[in-house]
Structure formats: C-alpha cells, structure tokens
Structure of Glycosyltransferase family 1 domain protein:
Amino acid sequence: MKILFGVQGTGNGHISRARALNKYLKADGISVDYIFSGRERDKYFDMEEFGDWRCYRGLTFVHDSGNVKIFRTFQEASLRQLMRDIRTLDVEQYDLVITDFEPVTAWAARRAGKTCLGIGHQYAFKYDVPRRGDNFVGKKIMEYFAPVEESLGLHWHHFNQPILPPIVDIDHISDPVDEKKILVYLGFEETHDVIQLLEPFKDFTFVYYGPFDQYESLGHIKLKPLSRDGFKYDLATSAGVICNAGFELSSEALHMGKKLLVKPLLGQLEQLSNAEAMSRLNLAMTMDYLDGNIVSQWLHNFSGRHVVYPNVAKAIAQWIGNKGWEHPGSKADLVESLWQAVDANGLESFSTNPTPVPLAETA
C-alpha cells in the first residue's frame, strides 16, 4: 500500500501525531510520502524520519499577542499559490490520501476523486463535542479548510460520539519529577508578556520553550530554543505544564499525569473549544488572558489529572493496513475497543460514561 500523508505544520502537535503514526505505518510495511505545509521549510526541525518530505506554503492563521487575526490571515494568504499547488499535486499513484488538517493534499484528493482520510483533532468537530466561540467563519473553516470523505477524529473524551482517544507519543524517561519545575510553551503569546507573568513566582523553576536562539537563564525562568529531545525530557521531569489550548501537548500531559493550565488562542474555534472541554471534564484550569492570579491558584492549589490512553497510533495503522475505511462497522469497532482501554484513574467524567453509546447509527 502506498499513502500520501499531508500534515499541517502550524505548531508542532500535528507533526507529533505524524511521528507516532509513521513508526507504525512503516512497521506494517506501508509506504508513505509526506507533505507539510503552514510554515517555511527552515522552520521545521528533527524531520529525518519523514524521508524525502515535501514542503508547501499552504494556509496558516496570522496571530498577534494571543489573538487570531482573521482579516490579516486573508490579506497575507497566497490563494493563487494554494490553487496552483492543489492543481499540480499528482495523487493518482496513491492508494489512499491522509490529511491531518493539511489543505493541499485534502483538496488535491477531492479534485482527483481520490479517497481522503482525515486523522486529527479538528475532525472531532464534525460531531457533537463541546464548542465555544462558534460562529459562521469558524464553522466554515472547520468544514472547508481540509475536507475529507472519511475521518478519525480525536478527543480527550468520546462525548458519546464516534471519535477516538488522542494519539500520544511518549518517550519513557526514568529521571524523577521535580515538583517545583513547570514546563511553559506559549507559542502564540509575546515573550516579554510571558516572562512578566512568571516573574513573581520565584519558588518555582519555569522552563520556557520559545523562539530563542540559545539557552538563557533569567534566574528561575530558563529560556530554551525548541528541541524535540529537550522538550520531551523537560515534559517528563516537570510537575506541570502551562501552554496554549492546543490538543497534542495537553494530551501528552494528561497521559503522564501532569497538571495543566491552558490559555486558548482567542478567536480560534478549536482552542476556545478545547479550553471549554477541559473545564467540563475537570482536566485542567484555564485562563483567557495571561493572569497572574490564576497562575498562582494553579501553582498552589491544583493537582494533576491522570488519564492513561492506549496506543491509538498502532491501532489506527493496523486499521489502515486492513483498509478499514472500506469496511462498514470497522470504525465503530475501533472506537469502542480503544475507549474500553482508557484508564482515567477514577475521574468522574470518565467513570460514569467510559465508552460511547452504541455507534451503529452514527459511525
């Protein structure tokens, strides 16, 4: 089987999912070509495992100080280049096109009449999951940004919908957790605003990953440039995580039992809805703005929730290898089996409703 896999390159969560899936797709003997879009090629890092991957401009959202700027997004988008890339991308040689909210591959597959499978968090929003900030523009972006015929949506809870648990790719690190160490990854916020937010809490050590050229120590605040191995180590050895309300890092933190404080990117439906879901499920504290009072409450009074998710990447790779999208009922079986394997350590939101209702009519 030969697959074309398009990955949204804005942020690193989509890439983390692709890394996890790539490992198991290769193990099952499936040949995969990768396309990434959403940032310049030199802004990607640690990409060797994706082989001879291709990079397109694609589409990405303009943000400023933690807010999405829709008008500037359309101003700066190169729609002519996007249409040219869609028209010229040849997908005929592939048995399947997969997209993780990547528009060039999704639209090229639709144009060619080729089956396109969406795998990712955004595809959970096809169903009745918690939403906040819903408006006409947000709905249309979710619907048309990277449209697919079949999807495997991912979320922290099933909400009685035919969606899967998160894909979590964890490196097993045996070093002990430092109870005073906090990992900070607020990629959509201004650096000086984040430093000012953390400055008063001198009893804690904040490891802040961001757009820094090199390591710098500001006393209890440690500035670090992005590094996959370094980030994984600091995540494993920290007691908590302060981050924007993206999906993948929050999933990894929950899986490892880290306490979470999330700040959504305002104006962005997915992140606002993620914060809403976190609150409903009692999985994290949230703040709409960089708020020192909330940080203080979280540091001193909030404890981590621990939700252990199964190996979703391996199960999806096997489902793809068996051409599950061609077999009615196979998706429902996949959904139920994976939620049955979740261990939420007694969290009420999971223990009262551990698996979805029968999915025959919704899958």
Summary: Residues 2-167+311-351 form a domain with the Rossmann fold fold (CATH 3.40.50.2000). The radius of gyration is 20 Å.
